[in-house]
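User: Fold this; tokens only.

Assistant: Input:
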Amino acid sequence: MAARSFHGSLSTFDATQEDWVEYAERLEHYFVANSIDNGDVQRAILLTNVGPATYRLAKTLSLPKKPTDYTFAQLVKMVTAHFHPKPSPILKRFEFNTRSQEEGESVAVFVAALRSIAEYCEYKDDILPDMLRDRIVCGIRDKAVQRSLLKESKLTYESALDTALAAEAAAHDCKQLQERQKPQLPVNRMNHKQGTGSKKTTTGGSNGGSTGSSYSDCYRCGGKHSAAQC
């Protein structure tokens, strides 16, 4: 009988490298990909792949029972509660309602942070979009965009997000164009003419006669005077 082949592979869970919730999700995908729907088999795969530290944790959390007395879903839930204690909804709502866009933070990152916080706020699905919309309007840094959003009488979460993203993209493109259109300042170079050192005799003093003074070409500028007079 040919050995059964499996899709994908499972690595040992390492809390320093991977989040527990994500690891549990990968296990569930593995079960689906390989048509593993037997609960006992799912639990056994979990317990044999979590590694010694997490297995010890599962045993401790299972006391006074054993890990095998729980289903796969129950074990995942217990370990999840250990790694990710459920935060207070009131605390998370306070964090949500005081979260504003930070300096240098893009609109997309700002909204992603809001959605991450909202996960623990226990807002009902039918009011969450309105809560996100209001937080975008109140927390966005660009005051011009904020005024534009406030003018909309039928503003939705989707339209608020689209407007904010479009304004951000336009501002970025405009800045790029301005940078490219900046005039390049010419570099001025001063060329100094070197004197030949030849002697020149000047005439025509104040009395119309010869002064008898002799000057060499100025080595500074090439003029008909001494360098000391330049």
